[in-house]
Amino acid sequence: xxxxxxxxxxxxQAVRGAPEVEIPRGYRTAPPVDDLAGLFAERVRDYRAIxxxxxxxEVPAAITELVRxxxxxxxxxxxxEWSGGAEPAGGSLAELDAAxxxxxxxxxxxxxxxxxxxxxxxxxxxxxxxxxxxxxLCVVRAGQxxxxxxxxxxRLDPSRPLTWISGPSATSDIELNRVEGVHxxxxxxxxxxx
Length: 194
What we know:
Blueprint: H1 3-15, H2 36-46, E1 50-54, H3 59-67, E2 71-73, E3 87-88, H4 93-98, E4 101-104, E5 108-110, E6 115-118, H5 127-131, E7 135-141, E8 145-146, H6 149-155, E9 163-165, E10 170-172, E11 178-180, E12 187-193
Parallel strand pairs: 1-12, 2-3, 2-4, 4-7, 5-8, 7-12
Antiparallel strand pairs: 5-6, 6-9, 10-11
Organism: Nonomuraea ferruginea
InterPro entries: FTHF_cligase-like_sf (IPR024185), LUD_dom (IPR003741), NagB/RpiA_transferase-like (IPR037171)
Domain LUD: 95-192
C-alpha cells in the first residue's frame, strides 16, 4: 500500500459513522457596484487598453474615425454601422496577418476584472480573427457588463469557444520584462457604448 492509500484509509476510518454535515455555500456572486460601465472602463484602462465611454448614438462615428484608412477584419454578424466603412480584410491566415486590425462586439464584459469575453457569436469573429491582427477594437454595450465573474459565467454557454481578454496581449520573462503582442493583439481599444 502506498502513502496516499494509507492516508486515505486513516481518514475513512476516522470519519466512519460520523453524521453527514451540510456545508452552507453562501458565496458572493455579485459584488456591489453602482457604476458598472465606469468600473469596467477603469479596470480596462489598468490593463493599458485605450478606452472610450460614449453614448450609443456616437459609437458609429467614433468607429469610423478609428478605422479610417485601415484594412480591418469585419466578422460575420457585426452591426453594419460598426464597420466604420473600413476596407474589409480577407479571412485566410495570411490575410489576417496582413490586416491592420479587427472590429468586434462581445458576449459579456466583467466590471470587477476589466475582462471581455468573446464566444464567436454574431459580430465577435473567430479566435483567429481576433488573435492574429495586431489591433483589436471591441465595442461593449453597457447592458453586456456584469459586476463579477460568476454573473459572466452564468450568461455564457460553456459549449462555445470562449476567449477571455484582459487587456492587450502581454507576457513577462523571468526578469519581469514586459513584452506585448506575443499571444494576440498589441493594442486593445474598447468603446463602451452607454
